[in-house]
Amino acid sequence: MTLKLEIAGLILLAVSLAACSKAAPPEKAEQPKTSSQVAATTNPVTEAATPGPAPAPATVSRGVKTEMRNVMFHLTDKAPAHVETLSGELWPTGKNDMPMFDDKTSYEVRVTNARVSITPQALASILNTHVFAKSDAPIKDISISIDKDRMLIKGKLHSKGDIPFETTGTLSVTSDGRIRVKTEKVKAMHVSVKGLMDKLGIELANVVNTSKIDGIDSDKNDLLMDLRTLLPPPHINGKVAAVKLENNAIITIFGDGGATAPRVSEAGSYMAFQGNSVRFGKLVMESTDIIVLDMDSGDPLDWNQDHYREQLVAGYSKITPSFGLRAYVKDYAKLPRAPTSPPSPVPTTAPSTPAQN
């Protein structure tokens, strides 16, 4: 009897996890042509044709060539990604005519070749504070760890009453360059339910509704992550070629991983920007020639775009004979922090009154 109750409880638990998944919008029916449209098709105008619009001018590249080597690039204050190597362009977004360093949404990084790694702790921080930060997000309190060639994700199904869950899976790349997390095990309330879900025809797509989550989609029992919209700005626009787990890090490779990229600087850690215009602070540089270098050449360049002015002020700059800029900056982690004054102690007894003569 007890065994039957436990099996029934697991079935009820799995069924309770079912939720609506995405549905493709219905296709619009073709509208019938009006009589004027039919006439225009069957009775072409025989008068002299008016000259058509002038051809659009050729698209002028507005991208700023970019190369990075050995950079800890902060996606948030607490979540850096190690850019081992990267080559591509900073490209202005929307109506912006140039990248503006003071506005991370004014440009995207179009990656040609790169090798970027991120720790599971940093990825979990981004998911908690950026991807699933809204109050109605389906998942909360995410933690990620790596066990050999498997990634373990734990969290709470917020839309299902904060039921604790955990999944184990492997990583691969889809044909369109997204990262697939292939689910192998699923636990709810520390009880394995993957086999029961399979028997009942319940998929992870029914459990986690990702319709309102940018950069996350579901495919049956797998999760798909699109780095172009998943990560905080500046967004990365590039097709992922490979992904792997190595040295307790998630390594993402674009193109050939930067194996053939030429070095702009002999320095071990730097970011280089060349060509077209950029704005930073009150200045605009045309035909950009900027190289950001680490004052401490013995470690990676620790760069935080939200605090780049503080890093520039703490360092120094040089102008080349051709008016290029070489900025030597202090690592973000080494910036002086404002000291926190301890609170004044609350007196436990009333102050004594001086004796009067």
Structural notes for this entry:
By secondary structure, the chain is of the alpha+beta class. Among the domains are: 64-116 and 255-333, no CATH class; 120-225, no CATH class. It has seven helices and 20 strands. The chain has helices at residues 2-16, 35-42, 120-131, 194-200, 204-207, 227-230, 308-313, and strands at 64-76, 79-92, 107-118, 139-147, 150-157, 163-173, 179-188, 191-192, 216-219, 222-225, 236-237, 240-246, 249-254, 270-274, 278-280, 283-285, 289-294, 301-303, 316-319, 325-329. The protein is elongated.
The end-to-end distance, rounded to whole angstroms, is: 90 Å
Which outline best applies?
A: elongated
Mean pLDDT, nearest integer?
79
**Portion in strands:** 35-45%
Structural Rg: 28 Å
Tally the beta strands: 20
Multimer state: single chain
Helix-and-strand structural type: alpha+beta
Major sheet details: 11 strands, mixed
Low-confidence segments? 1-30, 35-50
Helix/strand order:
HHEEEHEEEEEHHEEHEEEEEEEEHEE
**DSSP helix fraction:** 10-25%
Q: Can you count the helices?
A: 7
